[in-house]
């Protein structure tokens, strides 16, 4: 029993280490570097399982070493799997090579590619799916290990030894595999989810401060502008023709500044109460009318396709602004020429999805993570406000704005808005 608990603890230890040392700091970044570490930590855990095995009274010795190995592959990918596998094998060699080493080698070589195949799938499932799949995998691994142990004993010429144990004995160990694997996956997933939520909260707090600040500054600047405009108007009535023309230009420029500021104020406080039923096709037509010449000028081809009769609940002016922001980003991203931008609208259950797809340079996961942060821009003349504002507007419409991108493979921005 003590051995059993020790094995469990050893398997869970990397989780706690990760949580304490890295979860928040590492969230969304440097996961590639982490993968080696995942492999190393779980490899060490597997070794500790081997060093402190579960002794069942007689000479039959057992441990849970394959559970950390499975986790290393599922969460650490190729790197994690290779690191953990190597450590496991080295450890086995240290404890004594020979036939036992080769059975472990064969198991590692069999499991690694198989699990790597399943891994991409695994990560598309929901929490419950992941747990079920992890459970299945642990049972499958257990059977494989049993098989190889069987062969090992056949090789040693004392198979009868295995039959000395009851079926319950083997079922018990199978259950241990199942339990420790599903528990680990459950904890790991929960930890990642928590880290994600914390990151999101931090982001939205930052956003709130910056928008409040910006809105109040904009407001403060607007007042003196109005005063200046009034005095210029007054003064210009006593001026000669020449000066009056100058003053006229000054007023025009002031109006432009005023316009930009009120526009920004609008953005900073997206209002909720003007949601109305709008037709996606109309919105897209209007936006592309405005944007197509701009796109052509920048050497990008803009094409639109909307399912007919798509209704959605939105503020059409602001929705247009968001789509224009997205198209503008796509055009700017493919400024090297040969840009192709597709704007699509389709229905998806109770929602309408509007996608802006470009074939530009794309973004790395780190860059994707930063989208929508205030003033995050990689452009010389960028403001880094476009997407921040877009996220807020779409949120205010009860929708969501998502990005998919790979470096060198273009970017897809998707707006999802309820139909009612
Ligand atoms: P700005 O356009 O002023 O830089 P945004 O908030 O609109 O600010 O965009 C922020 C950053 O996100 C951009 O500087 C760019 O690096 C990146 N980005 C946005 N859309 C795309 C895209 N379609 N392809 C590549 N990068 C993009
Ligand atoms: Mg922009």
Automatic annotation (TrEMBL):
It is an enzyme of class 2 (transferase). GO terms for cellular component: plasma membrane. Pfam families: 5TM-5TMR_LYT, HATPase_c, HisKA. Keywords: ATP-binding, Cell membrane, Kinase, Membrane, Nucleotide-binding, Phosphoprotein, Transferase, Transmembrane, Transmembrane helix, Two-component regulatory system. Its EC number is 2.7.13.3. GO terms for biological process: cell wall organization. It is a multi-pass membrane protein. Residues 216-420 form the Histidine kinase domain. This is histidine kinase. CDD domains: HATPase, HisKA. The keyword ATP-binding applies. It is found in: Cell membrane. GO terms for molecular function: ATP binding; phosphorelay sensor kinase activity. The keyword ATP-binding applies. The chain crosses the membrane at residues 38-57, 69-95, 101-119, 131-155, 167-188. InterPro entries: HATPase_C_sf, HATPase_dom, His_kinase_dom, HisK_dim/P_dom, HisK_dim/P_sf, Sig_transdc_His_kin-like_C, Sig_transdc_His_kinase_LytS_TM. It catalyses: ATP + protein L-histidine = ADP + protein N-phospho-L-histidine.
């Amino acid at each position: 029993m003590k051995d059993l608990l020790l094995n469990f603890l050893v398997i869970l230890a990397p989780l706690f280490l990760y949580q304490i040392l890295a979860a928040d700091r590492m969230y969304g970044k440097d996961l590639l570097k982490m993968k080696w570490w995942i492999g190393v930590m779980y490899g060490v855990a597997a070794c500790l399982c081997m060093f402190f095995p579960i002794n069942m009274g007689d000479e039959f010795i057992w441990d849970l070493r394959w559970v950390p190995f499975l986790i290393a592959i599922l969460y650490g990918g190729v790197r994690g799997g290779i690191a953990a596998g190597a450590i496991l094998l080295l450890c086995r060699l240290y404890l004594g090579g020979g036939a036992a080493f080769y059975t472990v080698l064969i198991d590692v070589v069999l499991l690694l590619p198989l699990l790597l195949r399943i891994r991409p799938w695994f990560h598309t499932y929901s929490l419950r799916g992941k747990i079920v799949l992890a459970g299945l995998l642990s049972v499958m691994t257990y059977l494989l290990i049993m098989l190889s142990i069987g062969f090992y004993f056949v090789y040693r010429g004392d198979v009868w030894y295995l039959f000395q144990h009851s079926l319950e004995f083997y079922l018990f160990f199978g259950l241990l595999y199942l339990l420790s694997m599903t528990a680990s996956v459950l904890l790991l997933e929960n930890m990642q989810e928590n880290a994600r939520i914390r990151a999101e909260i931090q982001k939205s707090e930052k956003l709130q401060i910056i928008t409040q600040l910006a809105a109040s500054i904009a407001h403060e600047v607007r007042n003196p502008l109005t005063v200046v405009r009034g005095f210029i108007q007054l003064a210009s009535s006593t001026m000669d023709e020449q000066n009056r023309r100058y003053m006229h230009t000054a007023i025009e420029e002031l109006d432009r500044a005023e316009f930009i500021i009120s526009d920004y104020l609008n953005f900073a406080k997206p209002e909720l109460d003007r949601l109305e039923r709008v037709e996606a096709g109309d919105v897209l037509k209007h936006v592309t009318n405005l944007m197509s010449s701009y796109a052509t000028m920048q050497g990008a081809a803009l094409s639109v396709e909307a399912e007919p009769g798509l209704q959605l609940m939105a503020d059409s002016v602001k929705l247009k602004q968001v789509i224009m922001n997205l198209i503008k980003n796509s055009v700017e991203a493919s400024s090297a020429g040969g840009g192709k931008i597709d704007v699509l609208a389709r229905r998806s259950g109770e929602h309408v999805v509007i996608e802006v797809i470009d074939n530009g340079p794309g973004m790395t996961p780190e860059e994707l993570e930063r989208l929508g942060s205030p003033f995050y821009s990689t452009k010389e003349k960028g403001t880094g406000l476009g997407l921040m504002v877009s996220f807020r507007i779409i949120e205010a419409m009860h929708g969501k704005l998502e990005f998919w991108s790979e470096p060198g493979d273009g970017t897809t921005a998707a707006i999802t808005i309820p139909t009612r």
